[in-house]
Amino acid sequence: MSEVMTAPQPVERKCRLEEVFDANFIGLIRLVPRNPFVRALILKLAGKMPGPERETFEQIKEWVETNCDKRVRPASVRRGRNNPDDGIAINVEFSETEYGRADYSVPRSGSEEFRIDAEDLMEMVQAAVDAGEGVDGIVEVIAEKIDGDAWNQCNPDLDNYGDYDYSEQEATDSGNCGTSYSKNEIRNAVLAFVRERHPELAAEL
User: Fold this and answer.
1) Which of 9, 21, 167, 187 could form a disulfide with 25 if both were Cys (CB 3.0 to 4.6 A apart)?
2) Which of 58-67, 103-112, 191-200 has the lowest mean pLDDT?
């Protein structure tokens, strides 16, 4: 009796390599796929490590795409920019440096809108008018609020990676966190809001 040949079943892929690692790290894997630091970074970023038999870039790529999940970040809810009915939104640039167990650091950055609702903004406006501080006082209050609350309130998509720097850093967290924004943008947004919603106060700012 002749044996029946069974065609090999195609491997089911869960993701693409680009959906797990950024382009810089993929290039690093391509250059030194057997490097122990690279293997440790794969464990750090994917939560699991390929076996020692996966020695080439293509073998690691296949392993990642059949064993790892996409690194999907929760989508943030965006409302219309500077809609007077919703208060104001200021674009904030976020940056930090990630430190990992493989003794490396990599700067990351992204941006997100920091929202201040109409009720809170009106309290700031009224307080500034009462104190005779004008719009500059409101700008400083909002700037302090962004510096204090932006990292907790926003969900910036920090996927803009810089170059990996190997060092003796032993931390497994991130540091050098910072934010930047335009005070001129804050000023313009506040003035547009007041002129639209409370024109009687605009002259006092």
Assistant:
1) 21
2) 103-112
